[in-house]
Amino acid sequence: xxxxxxxxxxxxxxxxxxxxxxxxxxxxxxxxxxxxxxxxxxxxxxxxxxxxxxxxxxxxxxxxxxxxxxxxxxxxxxxxxxxxxxxxxxxxxxxxxxxxxxxxxxxxxxxxxxxxxxxxxxxxxxxxxxxxxxxxxxxxxxxxxxxxxxxxxxxxxxxxxxxxxxxxxxxxxxxxxxxxxxxxxxxxxxxxxxxxxxxxxxxxxxxxxxxxxxxxxxxxxxxxxxxxxxxxxxxxxxxxxxxxxxxxxxxxxxxxxxxxxxxxxxxxxxxxxxxxxxxxxxxxxxxxxxxxxxxxxxxxxxxxxxxxxxxxxxxxxxxxxxxxxxxxxxxxxxxxxxxxxxxxxxxxxxxxxxxxxxxxxxxxxxxxxxxxxxxxxxxxxxxxxxxxxxxxxxxxxxxx
Length: 400
Ligand code: CTP
Fold this sequence. Notes:
Elements: E1 6-11, H1 17-29, E2 33-38, H2 40-45, H3 48-55, H4 63-68, H5 74-80, E3 83-89, H6 91-98, H7 105-112, E4 117-121, H8 125-129, H9 131-142, E5 146-147, E6 151-154, E7 160-164, H10 168-179, E8 188-193, E9 198-201, E10 204-206, H11 213-224, E11 228-233, E12 245-248, H12 252-263, E13 268-271, E14 278-280, E15 299-301, H13 305-311, E16 317-324, H14 328-338, E17 343-348, E18 360-361, E19 363-367, E20 372-374, E21 378-379, H15 380-399
Parallel strand pairs: 1-2, 1-3, 3-4, 4-5, 8-11, 8-13, 11-12, 13-16, 16-17
Antiparallel strand pairs: 6-7, 9-10, 14-15, 17-19, 18-21, 19-20
Helix pairs in contact: 1-3, 1-10, 5-7, 6-9, 11-15
This protein binds cytidine-5'-triphosphate.
Cytidine-5'-triphosphate binds at residues 252, 271, 273-275, 277, 302, 304-306, 320-323, 335.
C-alpha cells in the first residue's frame, strides 16, 4: 500500500516509545521505506538496534555522525520524507518546534523538512494541560502541522487522564491518510465560521459566543484531505489555517455577499457560522449617549443565508449546523427540511464539552434521507474528520 513512500519516523523520549516499535512494524508491513531518527532520551527506553532491525535501515541518533556520512545528512533525510511522523512527541519536542528551536538531529530535521508532519504527543496529564504546552500545540496547528491528540486512560506515571499515545493502528491509519492522495482532491469546499457582528454605533455591536473553532477545524481538515477550501470567517481570535483561502467578514450581510459570490462554483458548502438573526434597524453615526433609564433598540431580521442557498441549490452538497438548547433532534430535523439541506450537524450547546468556545464537541449528524448518527464526545478536529468522511460518501453517491 505504501510502496515507494518514504516515512521518517521521529521518536522522542517517553515511556510510549515501545508503541513506536509496533508502529514501525505496521509501516514496514505495507512496504513503506522507513528511516528512524531517535533522540538521546528515546534511546534510554528502547535501543536503536530494535528500530534498526525492523526498519532494515540504520537508525539516526546523532546530528554530527550524520554530517560525516556522505550520502545522507539531516537535510537529505528531511528532503526524502513523504511524511515525517513523530511518535511519541514529548512536550519538549513540541515546545522546540513551536518556537523554531533546533538543537539535535530530530528537531533539526523537522525544521528542515517540507513534507507533511504528523505529531503524536504523549505525556503526563498535567503537562498536557499546562498553559505552556497548550500554547505551543496551538501554534503548531496554526503553522500547518498535523497533530493526533493523545487519548485518555491510565498513564505510566500512575495518573489517570489525557496524555496517552493513541494505539499504533490509529497512528498508522492517520499516517496512511496523509500519504495516499486525499479523498477530497478536486472538491471545492466553502466553509463559514465564527459569529457575525451587527454594529449598533461606532463603538458597539451585537454578536454571540461562537469561537469559530469548529468551522476552522473543518477548513483545516478539508484542506489536508486535498479539497480546495475557502473559509469565510466572522471575527474570531484564531490564526488563519494553512493552505486555505480565508476571507474575513463582519456582519451577516457581508458574509452573505462573500458566500453568494462563491456559491455557484462550490461543490460543498458547510455553514458552521453562527449568523446573527437580527441587526439594528439603523446604525447610529455617532456613539449613542446614555440619556434615559431604558433604551430600546429596534432590530431588523437578517436574511437566512443558508435558507437562501437551499432555495438556489443545484449540484451542491449543503450542510448546516443547528445550535439548540432544547428538543435537539426535532428542531435540527425541521431546520434541515426547511432549509433544503443534505445534512445538518445537531449541536446541543448546553451539553458538557459541547458548543461555543469548547475544544470538544458532542454532535448528531442528521441526513436528508432520515439517517442519524450520534458521535461521541470528540475534539473539534475529530468531529471535522467524521463530518468530512460523510461528505465523501455523499460525493461518492453521485450527489455531485
Ligand atoms: N444561518 C444562516 N443565516 C442566518 C441564521 C442561521 O445561514 N441568518 C445558518 C447557520 O450558519 C447554521 C444554520 O443556519 O448553519 C442554523 O443556524 P441556527 O442559529 O441554529 O438556527 P436558525 O436558523 O437561526 O434558527 P433559530 O435561531 O430560530 O434556532
